Amino acid sequence: MSRRAGSGGGRRQDSRCEQQQPTPSFQRGGGRGRGGPVPQTTSSASAVPPPHQAVSSFSSAVRPDPAEASSSAAAVEKVRRQVEQKLAIGEPAVKAPAPPASSKSVRFPSRPGFGTLGKKCLLKANHFLVEISERDFRQYDVTITPEVLSKAINRQVISQLITQYRQSHLGNRMPAYDGRKSLYTAGPLPFQSKEFVVKLPEKDQTAGSSGSAKKDRDFKVAIKFASMVDQHRLREFLSGKQIDSPQEAIQALDIVLRAGPSKDYTIVGRSFFSLKLGDPGELGDGVEYWRGYYQSLRPTQMGLSLNVDVSARSFYVPIPVIDFVSKNFRLRDMNRPVSDQDRVKLKKALRGLRVELSHQDHVKTYKITGLSSQPLNQTFFNQDGSSAKISVVQYFRERYNIGLRYTALPGLQAGNDSRPIYLPMELCKIVEGQRYTKKLNGRQVNSLLKATCERPFEREANIKKMVEANKFRKEELVNDEFGIRVKEELTFVEARVLPPPMLNYHATGGEARVNPSLGQWNMINKKMVNGGRVDFWTCVNFSSQINRDLPKEFCRQLIQMCVSKGMEFNTNALIPIRAAHPSQIEKTLVDIHMECEAKLANQEKARLQLLIIILPDFTGSYGTIKRICETELGIVSQCCQPKQALRLDKQYFENIALKINVKVGGRNSVLSDAIQRRIPLVSDRPTIILGADVTHPSPGEDSSPSIAAVVASMDWPEITKYRGIVSAQTHREEIIQDLYKTYQDKARGLVHSGMIRELFIEFRKSTGQKPHRVIIYRDGVSEGQFNQVLLYEMDAIRKACASLEQGYCPPVTFVVVQKRHHTRFFPAERSGADKNGNILPGTVVDTKICHQREFDFYLNSHASIKGTSRPSHYHVLFDENNFSADVLQMVTNSLCYTYARCTRSVSIVPPAYYAHLAAFRARYYIEGETSDEISSGGPAAGGAGRNRVIRPLPAIKDNVKDVMFYC
Fold first, then answer.
1. Are 26 and 58 in contact (CB under 8 A)?
2. Whole-angstrom Cα distance, residue 124 to residue 445?
3. 281-284 and 610-614 as β-strands: parallel, antiparallel, unpaired?
4. Which DSSP helix (H) or strand (E) runs through 518?
5. By CB neighbour count within 10 A (0-12 exposed, 13-18 middle, 19+ buried), where does 329 fall?
6. What does the pLDDT look like over 374-387, one tens digit per residue?
7. Cβ distance 110 to 95 under 8 Å?
8. What pLDDT, in 10s, does the model give residues 514-543?
9. Which of 268, 455, 578, 717 could cross-link to 35 by cystine, CB 3.0-4.6 Å?
10. Is 226 exposed, middle or buried (0-12, 13-18, 19+ CB in 10 A)?
């Protein structure tokens, strides 16, 4: 594999569509942007048009005449075909002949060599080397009749089959089973297809079973040969002689390594949990956490690696249902009927929960499907098929001699609506080992974080314990049967610590430049590089804790801080500061808006620039305030917590000043290399940096859409200001749907629109240049969705560019940012650690545990405040700009020091961070404070939510969109 120079290298001849054309430019005139003329990097680069002409050129594509629309549509279709062909074929990053490919899957860029910059250090990673032997693996299809949906029961059936037939019919083989349809063996079974009968002792696994607990259940198990598992391809891939990752072989090995834990522990995704792995911890309201570990087999540069990390998840406490209801719903009198509203809440909280009924001589389990519509003493059913009805209360008294106490409560319903089974809450207990999938409240989240926050040395020790608990070296199935060896030592990895970037502040401050230390710095003796101006502002207080005079003093000190940091701030409020009752939020905000509009009626283009809001004492109002201000009234607001306002703390004022400055159009700091035009592949030509993310509604919420957000830098060459756009899309859909779209208009014909077009047009307006280069950081994509997301979203970007101008095709670099992974690093030497024992900010790893062939790296760009640092994983899916490893790693690390809301480097690159903030903000517009966000990355879920009509988000007012309102 060849290496490129650290400066970034040149461009491949076939790197993108329309490569034979000169550098894209608008077709009229010349001119310059804010940062001076763009250095001409190629002799064929044409002149850049004046800003006003260029804007009209770009903007004209928004409303084309029919002829232009037809031409543009043809160009878009041409680009679509080119993108599909390019991505399907792929392109090697080196000139040497590429290894043969066994499929036509999407090709991601090969690694352009390894990074060399930075101070070298040695780390330990929670990856454990896996060695495999020369054995033939075979896959068999499994069919169990009657069909059972529970993987646990399926495993019991196959385990019983192996016990009964291993010696007599299985050739003494010990298979590994995935719990569904596949079974793997190391060597052939003595048949191609065979059917077995398995008797499984009944342990009351069927909800609502009325049979004896000792009755056996009969299953028919058909096993049929499916295919050979190609281990040779796996070895070829690991040695670099094969391009495509042999997923079938890796999956087979993964199932073998998971077979033992799957029988012993509770499975949640790729993690295992058990009370054997650690004591549970109380989270409150009938919820506790269990300790466990995550396990995943991955192909890496060093070979096969088993990634193991400690984990914790919330589970239901196995307590009586009546106690759970009491804890969660604070029911003071259990003998009073519940309201319809409370009954709906109870049903939502209990539906799907498995409970056990133990009033007889054996235990029965049931799955709750709902609640009775009436209290128990008014709930009747037909007994034993007769026409005579009997109440649930009477039934338990006559049949079991049990007098129920809480007869005013509804009964738990099991079974279906045609044959419901009603169970008294007081006789039911929650079955142990059920994961709590509802949203944790703030107190529960804090308890979980506090209990699981571990320093690096503690986490490393616990990971070692989990690996030892697996006993891979002693397990017969893993070692003897399949010949797999798992080393129990963490992997040593060579890393580098990249230097922090120099930051520029205003020259009039005491320090015009700062060199961050250990990922942090402060604002002492510094002024914002571009202080914003606030002429018209006011304040409203919704808190009852704060006395009448404090808001004035709060605003005075806040303004004083803003001015001291370089802002221009009118000391007088536009209208008097006021207090209002939190029940009157909407009316108060509308009144303030109207009064300010009236006050500024005679001043052209003048409007309220900032509304300072002291929030109510209780939660639940923030989302409402933001929705009203940003989508209805066009007010940029800064909300403050009452407890923080009461303190009048200077550090708090400084943090708020940073946020206010960017919300009114200022800039806090700028990379020195950006000012000096020294950032490779960014400073030389107008470059737009995009961040994109999709957030999904909380688990169990089927009605809410997913929210996509894209932000784009608007101030090249400084790259600190980002404009954000949000859009609602199909429930749990990961691909961003509105990057580019068209619709038919009766008057205008085909109209082009979408997020990319809007952001590119705004970039042109802001800088006077159109983007000559595109870098996109895409957050929240899992590895299984790389192909799908890249194909769709690159196609949308290309179409959007082609619709803006004929032949416009700027080179794109598409990088996925992953935070939800389980790789952790631990310093092997004290010199490579901070005071908390974490690895240093700027630590980058692109060897050994990274992808065998593709362009990826781990970057720990921040200093962890608590617990163990989690590095971000960057994976390049498309690169027409020919980034070298050093350049992309340095650019990414430097950007992490430009986050506007604090004087610290952050853990993920700011464009992706801003996109996440914007998407989260947009959820408030449709859900208020009930919104909840989970990091994307899982497969799109099916169900009713995906079939709902998506309600568009309310439009954000233009003056709000012009600034970084989401900060």
1. yes
2. 29
3. unpaired
4. none
5. middle
6. 999 999 988 776 77
7. no
8. 999 999 999 999 999 999 999 999 999 999
9. 717
10. middle
